[in-house]
Specification:
Radius of gyration: 20 Å
Strand content: 15-25%
Number of domains: 2
CATH architecture of the largest domain: 3-Layer(aba) Sandwich
Shape: globular
Oligomer: single chain
Helix content: 25-40%
């Protein structure tokens, strides 16, 4: 049974139907990862005298997301077939997420997207993701590429910096294909660059999906400031957003105003700044339980600051100051 449990868990996750299934599945996954993930088990032992006595998911100490940069975070021994990596510099190592099963990641991501937006076959997907395309092993590029395959539109394209070609493609599709919607998926700084060059044109009938990230190309702005600029430039009522990262295999989407809807595979909790096991319902650092992280660690403490709208919706307000320094460095030497 132990040998087959990861596969069983994946099948359950892909078929989850009700919110009330989440906690029991999360506790089952916690027990599995406590036994099979030595880094996670050691982390939990710092906070719990009896780690197997946890009864509620709120009691689980979430692993600092920085650990993906310094350790191999795995709950299975099978050799990985794909490695996703975050962006990084010579001073900052990259996060690495090792997987044996890209099919599961793709199916989970497709189900999450289509539950909120409908079939991918209803879209032309134009991806403005230059900084992600310029490096290897981006989970976002991998996911969007799989979305394009499912969409099967002949006009699906990744763009680097050819804004003129992107603009021409949008104009062509708007005039010649009313059957499909246009989904422009872009990293924040590139969307702002595109808006500076082609703002003032009416894009009110397309979906603009920003995925965050200035990558040092522009001054940092709040999501609300970015959306206001893009709304004015393109004449859209709302700018959509995707909340995802290398260390997670599930995504949350916002259809406007920066309010993200949690998928059935994800729960968000807000922790106090200086106490990883004290939770708040107003404003705090975001902890994520991602049921899709079966092969790595499902319990992740990010350095994003957020607020809960209700039990299924949240907003991301920004990043904690000195996030990298505050994350795990105090305990890193012990791992």
């Amino acid at each position: 049974m132990k040998k087959d449990l990861p596969l069983i868990l994946k099948n359950i996750v892909l078929n989850i139907q009700q919110e009330d299934e989440f906690e029991s599945l999360a506790l089952l996954l916690y027990d599995f990862q406590l036994k099979n993930n030595p880094i996670f088990a050691q982390w939990v032992s710092f906070f719990c005298e009896n780690p197997y006595n946890i009864q509620k998911i709120e009691q689980i100490p979430c692993l600092p997301i920085e650990f993906f940069k310094y350790h191999t975070i795995r709950s299975i021994s099978k050799k990985p077939t794909i490695i996703f990596e975050s962006s990084g510099t010579t001073q900052t190592p990259k996060s690495r997420h090792l997987l044996t099963d890209s099919y599961f990641y793709v199916q989970n991501s497709i189900q999450i997207f289509e539950k909120q937006y409908g079939s991918l076959e209803n879209y032309h997907i134009l991806a403005l993701l230059p900084s992600y395309l310029e490096r290897e092993n981006s989970s976002l590029v991998y996911m969007v590429n799989e979305f394009m395959k499912k969409s099967a539109s002949p006009y699906n394209t990744f763009y680097l910096y050819d804004f003129e070609k992107l603009f021409q493609t949008i104009q062509f599709l708007r005039k010649n294909d009313s059957e499909r919607k246009i989904l422009l998926w872009g990293v924040t700084y590139a969307l702002l660059d595109f808006a500076e060059k082609f703002g003032g044109n009416d894009f009110s009938d397309i979906i603009i999906m920003e995925t965050g990230g200035m990558k040092g190309r522009r001054k940092e702005m709040t999501r609300a400031e970015v959306h206001q600029i893009l709304q004015k430039a393109f004449g859209v009522k709302q700018v959509h957003s995707e909340y995802g990262m290398t260390e997670l295999l599930s995504q949350a989407y916002s259809q406007g105003e920066g309010i993200f809807e949690m998928p059935l595979t994800m729960r968000i909790f807000l922790r106090e700044n200086n106490d990883p096991l004290t939770y708040t319902h107003t404003r705090g650092l975001i902890n994520v339980i991602d049921l899709a992280n079966i092969e790595s660690c499902a319990f992740i403490a990010t350095q994003d600051v957020g607020t809960l709208i209700d039990k299924n919706k949240f907003m991301v307000l920004g990043r904690a100051d000195n996030a990298e320094q505050r994350g795990c460095n105090l305990l890193l030497e012990q791992f």
